[in-house]
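Our consortium's second objective concerns turning raw sequence data into structural hypotheses that experimental partners can test. To show how far this objective has progressed, the report includes one record in full. It was chosen at random from the queue rather than selected for favorable results. The single chain below, 133 residues long, was entered without modification.
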Amino acid sequence: MKFLKIFLSIFVIFSIFIIGFFTYYISDYVLPWDRAEVIITVQSWGGLSDLPKDATNFEYKKEGSIFTREFTVEFDALKNEIDIWILKSKGLQQKQSKIIKNTRIFEVRGYENSMGGKVYIKDNHVKINMMWS
């Protein structure tokens, strides 16, 4: 009986460790307490200004390993707020944007030793994708 309790205790601790490791390092899910840090990171890597105050419907995704990292942040905002955000963001002023299939695409040079990324804008939806390696 004592052996069973020890075995179950070790099994529970190991399971919690594996689930935590998978969620934090392997899964593309961004934990709620990491979301603000993801926004700050994509802003600094892309030379982007603060996101529009009326932004809603946020989605977050992370990819990579300890040697590479990629963050994607998506949100919706009013069209005029997005236009103001574009003008305030120095990273979006570097190159002329392209329009492909009704989506405005900015190629963003990397800041803070990042590889940069792209910003996609379609109607009132914005998708920011930044990478570091």
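The partners drew two points from this record. Residues 1-29 form one domain. The chain is about 35% helix and 30% strand. Both points have been shared with the crystallography group to help prioritize constructs.
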